[in-house]
From TrEMBL:
Belongs to the bZIP family. Residues 105-149 form the BZIP domain. InterPro entries: bZIP (IPR004827), bZIP_sf (IPR046347), TGA_domain (IPR025422). PANTHER family: TRANSCRIPTION FACTOR TGA2.2 (PTHR45693:SF14), TRANSCRIPTION FACTOR TGA9 (PTHR45693). One of its GO terms (cellular component) is nucleus. Pfam families: bZIP_1 (PF00170), DOG1 (PF14144). One of its GO terms (molecular function) is sequence-specific DNA binding. It comes from Setaria viridis (Green bristlegrass). This is DOG1 domain-containing protein. SMART domains: BRLZ (SM00338). It comes from the Eukaryota. Transmembrane segments: none annotated.
């Protein structure tokens, strides 16, 4: 069979498959061939032999990829070797495909094993995360129990947890937690009151809510008194308040006289008797505040003189006995700070109750809503100020 005739037969066979799928080139009919395939190969009419003799060198993956079937290979072999050659090629192709399947099976098995390992590691991570959550929950419950025990025994547990300090009352940290809870409860009560006012509830229903809020104010004054015994400076400095609230702070709280001025415009219309009562209450509150402020100024002046008197002529402290005596006097004067704070809170508490007695129940409800909204906006102003963009 000459080369030209063989090429024509090959071209007829290639009509059954895409020409661009594969090109099998045999360089010699009687020796083992080499397989060359190129997707960009363009067939040219040249005189060369295109017959496949040995299938053992043709990968099964190449046959599958380029749609070369065993029937096509048999047809090629029949051109050169006859029917016997086709049988040999079919058997060889079958053996080759079996051998090629094994690496593919191993690859699939290896991938499945990797997936199983990844799933196992994921389950372990999930289990560890759940255990961590449970451990954190137990620690939180333990801390809450310790905090409750500290409240009952009057012991302040330090933040490091390695030591406890016995105190006559709750510590600063405990008060901060109590104040946070007090605020949450007050928000609930105010929301309930606002709903009742908007729904035009009866006076008896409003009175129950208003009395509950007033009792809640009494509770915060009690908590401040207990905390002042442990750390009066913490309460006076207002560290439990927002920065904007601290700016308007007076002796650990609000000025009753200033609050009454704000409420008068919010409670209109008022009767002449109510206006007179609120005016007198505002004036008496102002006088009490002035007296307490003067007392604080006198205390600060006296304390400064006491500390300055302990200095020697050269600016250093004198003898130890004199120094200790002066410091003892200063400590005694600082003890009056708690008394000033208690009087200021009593003034605030009495002002609220007297205001309630002057107003009707609906006016008192509106007054409590106005007070809460004022301090809420003050806290919001503080948050906005801290979050402002800085250049």
């Amino acid at each position: 069979m000459d080369d030209l005739l063989l090429c024509q037969i090959i071209l007829q066979i290639f009509n059954f498959i895409p020409v661009q799928s594969a090109h099998v080139i045999l360089k010699s009919v009687h020796v083992t061939c080499s397989i060359i395939y190129d997707l960009d190969f363009q067939y040219k009419e040249t005189s060369f032999i295109c017959v496949l003799l040995h299938v053992n060198f043709l990968p099964y993956s190449f046959m599958h990829k380029h749609c070369i079937s065993v029937i096509f290979l048999n047809q090629l072999l029949q051109l050169e070797n006859g029917q016997s050659g086709a049988i040999v090629m079919a058997s060889n192709s079958s053996d080759r495909s079996d051998r090629s399947d094994k690496p593919m099976d191993q690859k699939v098995l290896r991938r499945l094993a990797q997936n199983r390992e990844a799933a196992r590691k994921s389950r372990l991570r999930k289990k560890a995360y759940v255990q961590q959550l449970e451990s954190s929950k137990l620690k939180l419950a333990s801390l809450e129990q310790e905090l409750q025990k500290a409240r009952q025994q009057g012991i302040f547990i330090s933040s490091s947890g390695d030591q406890t300090h016995a105190m006559s009352g709750n510590g600063a940290m405990t008060f901060d937690l109590e104040y946070s809870r007090w605020q949450e409860e007050q928000n609930k009560q105010i929301n309930e009151l606002r709903t009742a006012v908007n729904a035009h509830a009866s006076d008896s229903d409003l009175r129950l809510i208003v009395d509950g809020i007033m009792a809640h104010y009494d509770e915060i004054f009690r908590l401040k008194g207990v905390a002042a015994k442990a750390d009066v400076f913490h309460i006076l400095s207002g560290m439990w308040k927002t920065p904007a609230e601290r700016c308007f702070l007076w002796l650990g709280g609000f000025r009753s006289s200033e609050l009454l001025k704000l409420l008068v415009n919010q409670l209109e219309p008022l009767t002449e008797q109510q206006l007179m009562g609120l005016s007198n209450l505002q004036q008496s509150s102002q006088q009490a505040e002035d007296a307490l402020s003067q007392g604080m100024e006198a205390l600060q002046q006296s304390l400064a003189e006491t500390l300055a008197g302990s200095l020697g002529p050269s600016g250093s402290s004198g003898n130890v006995a004199n120094y200790m005596g002066q410091m003892a006097m200063a400590m005694g004067k600082l003890g009056t700070l708690e008394n000033f704070l208690r009087q200021a809170d009593n003034l605030r508490q009495q002002t609220l109750h007297q205001m309630q007695r002057i107003l009707t129940i609906r006016q008192a409800a509106r007054a409590l809503l106005a007070i809460h909204d004022y301090f809420s906006r003050l806290r919001a102003l503080s948050s906005l100020w801290l979050a402002r963009p800085r250049e």
